[in-house]
Design brief:
Layout lengths: L5 H4 L10 H17 L8 H10 L3 E2 L4 E2 L4 E2 L5 E3 L4 E2 L4 E3 L4 E3 L4 E2 L4 E3 L1 E3 L8 E3 L2 E3 L4 E2 L4 E2 L4 E2 L4 E2 L4 E2 L7 E4 L4 E5 L4 H6 L1
Parallel strand pairs: 1-4, 2-5, 3-6, 4-7, 5-8, 6-9, 7-12, 8-13, 9-14, 12-15, 13-16, 14-17, 16-18
Antiparallel strand pairs: 10-11, 18-19
Length: 193
Amino acid sequence: MSILDAKDSKPLLGGPSFSLSNRVYRTIWSVFWLIFAAWTPAPFHAWRRSMLKLFGAEVGPGAHIYGSARVWDPSHLVMGAYSCLGRRVDCYSMGRITLGDHATVSQDASLCAGLHDIDDADFQLLTKPIVIGAHAWVAAGAFVGPGVTIGDGAVLGARAVTFKDLRPWGVYIGNPSSFLRLRARSEMARGQS
């Protein structure tokens, strides 16, 4: 694993949390995205899919990734068919982040799959995967914390924050998010599952 033991690397004293090979890979990725993808026009989703795949992402057909989206480590990203990372999404993929088919993460949302152990004297970095189910929607400016599973068809409303799992087809709002109601299951969603 590319995460270093905090006892040895001393992140509280400015040491790295990730191996040198991981840091080099991410630097190359960032420069590559900046040069070849970040500036591309919105309709160039197929081009950006190919760029992510080149760096190890698993990206399904028809997935939409906008050029201004930031993917920290594409090798930890899985996107289902017709899923979407909107404009300026911060996909902080220290750990695996999975979007199911037709899942949407709207503009300015944040997905954070890493945290530090606040009870560890050395502040060890930990990763916890995020799973966003099929037909789920993470609305504009929402935040999804490490280890969260958003069930199929669930909605996390605009600017909402969750550190807990969201049940399938539930609608959640606020900070911290709270259950509002169940979402109607459309015939379209049933037919595409």
